[in-house]
Amino acid sequence: MKPLRAIPLALLLGLALAQGTYVPKGYTLTPYLSAKPVRSFKEAKAVLKPSTDYRAVLETTAGRLVIDLYEAETPKTVNSFVFLALNRYFDGLAFHRVVEGFVVQGGDPNTLRDDPAAWGTGGPGYGFGLEVTPKLTFDAKGVLGMARTQDPNSNGSQFFITLQPTPNLNGLYTVFGKVVEGMAVLDKIARGEPPAKPTRMTRVYIVQKAK
User: If you ran DSSP here, which 8-state letter would residue 204 be given?
Assistant: First the structure.
């Protein structure tokens, strides 16, 4: 009898992810890199493949968001976001700052703690600079941007999604994607700074297709 061949971890994770998972038409699942959430890194490893289109699926307690990522225009930012998602970094995190008529903001691992005073101050352990592209602007509801401090090199894991056009942010923050499915979900995310009962991301995963 021939010995059983070991199944690669990436394949196992991909199979597990495929159960009960929404995949937009034409896309395939990108296997996780970790079996459980990892939330501390020295840097984001290169994970993007050439000639590949990426989208992020955010399953939240308010519903599902599908976001087209701008990997061609903002490769460093998208690579970091995809790297973190593939390590399950965002799973369980809350939208800790939700301002009506402005933005919903999330991506801080401190929102797993019971101390709201610390929410909005956390990150992945590394930072990187802006990727401002003139043709990408905060011109509509559903635009995905990187949150940061006053330091332009402080991009990390926190991101925001606009609730209406916010041209005052143009040139100051990186635009790296846009909601293409689930726009109505943005209206259901709990408001507040922070919300009393925040909406959480139950799972964030990546899908891809060849360009």
Answer: E
